Amino acid sequence: MIRALALALLAVVATAPAAHAASPVGMTDGFYVDPDSNPAVWVRDHAGDGRQAAIKANISTKPIARWFGAWSGDIKTSVSAYVNRTGTKLPVLVAYNIPGRDACGGHSGGGAGSPEAYRTWISSFASAIGTRPAVVVIEPDSLADFNCMDGAKIAERTAMIKYATEQFKAKAPNTWAYLDAGNAQWVPAATMATRLDSAGVRNVRGFSINVSNYHATAASTEYGNSVSGALPGYTKPYVIDTSRNGNGHNGEWCNPGGRKLGTPARTGGGAEMLLWVKVPGDSDGRCGKAPGVDAGKFDPQLAFDLVYGY
């Protein structure tokens, strides 16, 4: 009887999720610079271009997040290969495959074909990271982009994101995952706090602010503090996307002119981390200064202009 009980306890321990050994920041020595980011590939292929030196010095040699979606192929293979090659550096990844993605904006539409397909995809994403250290931003805009959705669609999306948080908690114990919380002028802080709580932010490290947007770090910090303070009975840390917020926000969100690179990736800075989540130079869609460039495609002129604030 005692032997049987001992074996049963061993089985439970063997199947339980691994405990957090340390923070992913503490387990690594700086952020990973992706040699195959869109800007880095362009720099390699355009040595004779007059814009190349500025883009190389100011963008392609900086830590930038890698986005994963349907274009990534088999997600477990793709994510595992990426985190495997980061060595002692900390990778930043973005999960961007929610069904009905960008439902209201329209420029970045797509996503998994069904909630069931998404659950399979996001579970494989978390499994692919496993116990390796990482930072993951989960589904940019997905909790802010509700204004064109009915109650059933909102509930369906919220359930999918909550499932994602459960998968990262169970399968990627040394990942700091952040649910996206829109930006400083999109959703009131108290409303966003309610959405985050319903979507399982308790299960993950915290939330992200200003992904693919332009609001200044100070404005984003004020909003992040308000959201955290409005969570019911607990607080959460947050990260800010500073990739294009050097000149702040001018009221436009889709490839506006006059914007500038912000503070490169670092810990602290008003938030838990400042990150380049959006790839500088990647288009927001066929709009603004890049009417002929699809969302997510790199445009060297957009990148060059961000260096100088043009």
Automatic annotation (TrEMBL):
It comes from the Bacteria. Coiled coil: none annotated. It holds the Pfam family Glyco_hydro_6. Residues 1-21 form the signal peptide. The keyword Hydrolase applies. Its EC number is 3.2.1.-. Keywords: Carbohydrate metabolism, Cellulose degradation, Disulfide bond, Glycosidase, Hydrolase, Polysaccharide degradation, Signal. GO terms for molecular function: hydrolase activity. SUPFAM superfamilies: Glycosyl hydrolases family 6, cellulases. The active site is at residue 141. Gene3D superfamilies: 1, 4-beta cellobiohydrolase (3.20.20.40). Belongs to the glycosyl hydrolase family 6. PANTHER family: 1,4-BETA-D-GLUCAN CELLOBIOHYDROLASE C-RELATED (PTHR34876:SF4), PTHR34876. This is Glucanase. It comes from Lentzea sokolovensis.
